[in-house]
Amino acid sequence: MTRQVLITGGAGFVGSTLALGLAQRYPDWQITALDNLKRRGSELNLPRLKQAGIQFIHGDVRNQEDLDPVALKPDLIVECSAEPSVLAGYASPGYVLQTNLVGTINCLELARQTQADFIFLSTSRIYPIKSLSNLQFKEAETRFQLLEQQSLPGASSQGIAENFPLNGSRSLYGATKLASELLVAEYAEAYGLRTIINRCGVLTGPWQMGKVDQGVFALWMAFHYFKRSLKYIGYGGTGKQVRDFLHVSDLLNLIDLQIHQLSKLAGQTFNVGGGVNNTLSLCETTQLCQEICGHSIPITPLPASRMGDVPIFITDSSKVMYATGWQPQKDAKTTLTEIYEWLHKFEHQVSEIFL
């Protein structure tokens, strides 16, 4: 069946990967990528989108007129647009609120007017910072490690599940995404829309223009590749803080499954991440980057923690795996090696972004 698919944030790391992947799998689908190109490096994806036959619209989800239902006519919207940085929320609250909340409202209005299916990419950052910081863990040689027994529901050694308590502050970024989730549910109920919410953990892979506060694994490999210095920030400067990661191609596989199972999955919210089998601390990431690149770089310990940071987050994706049969395929070494190979192949293009 031919589909009219709109991907917002479609020139970004996640949006462009989904657009290109779906275009390759379904050549008869009409895929449109809308993006304001604010994120540096997103312009590098425009030739890739054009070559794949994907229509690009230079637009902004903050502007309702850029989401014209007559011109776009989507039957599926994949909402990837966001300012994804926690720190940006503290520095530029207006932009984050407008992009992440008003932008979602405008996308939902488009879905209402066209009766489009709606897949929303939310974030693990909707879970409260204080509660996450109070999880029980032990300190091992190279990482912090969650204990099985936790005082809060939805928390275990497998990570954080969907029933983890939501009371408490979570950063302005996290608040905009949680508020958007609530609105997605309301629009679904009020207007009969088929919707899915994916609370994504750390996503990574080739073509991610990583920064200190977002896209850490791509940044870590890039700084090793270009021989730039790094810092272990917070928690004593040991580099033992842990995140799970998900290769963006594994996210593509899940979105593909969800599109074809919308009738069954509509109205559900899923935690989506690499899970306990795909976790890295910063110092473990350093070791892998050294192994893959073949050289070391200076890393400075800064013991003081940043606002909004947590020592450990692991996504418990059991619900979505049970519902769809999906499982992440790419492990840490494969993922970091692919990022290294991308950096090597496109060194001239991406060096200006990272340097």
Automatic annotation (TrEMBL):
<feature type="domain" description="NAD-dependent epimerase/dehydratase">
    <location>
        <begin position="5"/>
        <end position="273"/>
    </location>
</feature>
<dbReference type="Pfam" id="PF01370">
    <property type="entry name" value="Epimerase"/>
</dbReference>
<protein>
    <submittedName>
        <fullName>NAD-dependent epimerase/dehydratase</fullName>
    </submittedName>
</protein>
<dbReference type="InterPro" id="IPR001509">
    <property type="entry name" value="Epimerase_deHydtase"/>
</dbReference>
<dbReference type="InterPro" id="IPR036291">
    <property type="entry name" value="NAD(P)-bd_dom_sf"/>
</dbReference>
<comment type="similarity">
    <text>Belongs to the NAD(P)-dependent epimerase/dehydratase family.</text>
</comment>
